[in-house]
Amino acid sequence: MTVFDVYLQQVINGLNLGAMYALLALGFTLVYGILELINFSHFNVFMVGSFVALYTLEAFGLSGQTVILAGLPLVGVLLVTFAVTMTVTGTIGVGIERFLLRRLRAVKGPAAMITTIGVSYILFNIVLLTVGADTHNFANPLPTVTWAIGGASLRLRDVLIWIVSAVLMIALTYFVQYTKIGKAMRATAQDPEAARMMGVEVDRVIMTAFFLGSALAGAGGLIFGLYYNFTSFLIGFTAGLRAFTAAVLGGIGNVPGAMLGGLLIGLVETIGSQIIGASWADVIIFAILVLVLVFRPAGLLGRIAPNKS
Amino acid sequence: MSRDGSLLLEFTGINTYYGDLHALKDVNYTIGRGEIVSLLGGNACGKSTTMKTIMGVVIPATGTVIFDGKPIEKLPTSERVRRGIAPVLEARRLFPRMTVYENLEMGAYTQPKGPQFNEDLERVYELFPRVKERRNQLSGTLSGGEQQMVAIGRALMARPRLICMDEPSMGLSPLYVEQVFDIIQTINKQGTTIFMVEQNANMALSIAHRAYVLQTGRVVLSGTAAELRENPSIREAYLGELKVDAAA
Lengths: 309, 248
Ligand SMILES: Nc1ncnc2c1ncn2[C@@H]1O[C@H](COP(=O)(O)OP(=O)(O)OP(=O)(O)O)[C@@H](O)[C@H]1O
Ligand SMILES: [Mg+2]
Known about the structure:
A: mainly alpha, ABC transporter involved in vitamin B12 uptake, BtuC, two-stranded antiparallel ribbon, binds adenosine-5'-triphosphate
């Protein structure tokens, strides 16, 4: 491998992680855009998602690296696994909003945010106490198809992660831009009271934001498993914090910003680790965050003065 | 639709509080079908609170709001809009990062999309050719006058029977003020009842049929526009006439 190949490989890896961070960052941004709430429970909804995916794959008889699928069965299993995982995490997100956060919506101050931290730890401990502290091997049913690009290798897994992430992000963009409830989401983010007086049922809009964000976190959890081939009750905090950073970097509340921020953080992580060393990943990521925020406090695509009343 | 003497809105015995602040004190209004009724009053006297109480974003402690013969004070805002009440909000409150067209779509939120939507859109474009020209522009980049046209158009998209306007002339140049009041009269002649908060009492009384005067949360005067125009205390307080002028 030449130096160039090494970096090319890190770009490929970085785009995988970046896609995962982007999916997670969208959940932070959708909820923040409407409620101005940082939803820390998102960290561990993502972690739960990776376990839901793990057990769904096991239900198909897939565990570890033992069974390799191809063609239609592979596509079918993956589609069902994504669908189940996203539905379950989406429902968890809606439950958190409906039964806990909604009651706190009228309360000023940090109560709602603290509640999300509490929920995050509850999810964390439930998983710890039920599935245990061990690292779980994640099923990898993908055939080991690899293409050589120079000295770097592009795997089927990489392509799959990119396609799935791209489809989800395009679908979300379409949803927010063109559907009726998507437009209501944007209107509510810009002026909740005015949106309400247009006849928007704001509760439904908020529920939709939680469902979509949490469903994307579930997809991110499955991608985590496919990428690293393991999962554990611990994965929520590191990935969640990096994804939150991505959302802030892109401009929190801004959908394209979350996608851009996610990809950048993924690339910074892999390329920065290559240059300075993997243990420095967080130092590099957060140094870049601090630098960007000092010079562009609203993030890369954010607006300096949010137009709110 | 014409002014047939039947009531479209009855706002009875309303008391509204913000914490300890008693914003509306036993307030009554009636609005007849087809009328333009104006609500006059100085700053912070409860005009916007009145509008918000009708829309249901502020809930009164006591009192009833009857729209088209049915109590609505317990209904959520969305249901009130569905039944035919639409707002033109104070300071316009468009969705600044949505296009003019999207703002009009938001106005039609409770309406089915289809031929009816296109008809309503054509009507708005006919009333406001300028809005049609600007339909793909982000509404936050429009001038104040243009924004007010979009705000009125947005309300019309809900097919309202009653439009509650909160200071539609606020911050507009005299030319635009004329235009806005003309449009309000046109809309009213086409059959929509108007309840309009104004500080520009002169203009408001020139197009309104009746008016109420609010002072620190209490209705202190009401009557036909003609009566109020002749009322000395109104002339002094709201029509900008000074006693010196009268004496001269
Ligand atoms: N959400 C709120 N919380 C607390 N107090 C409020 C709230 N909204 C209005 N008020 C108070 O209620 C009173 C009436 O306010 P309102 O907005 O109805 O006045 P207004 O007549 O529309 O005034 P303006 O002419 O300035 O628009 C004011 O004293 C205001 O400070
Ligand atoms: Mg007001």
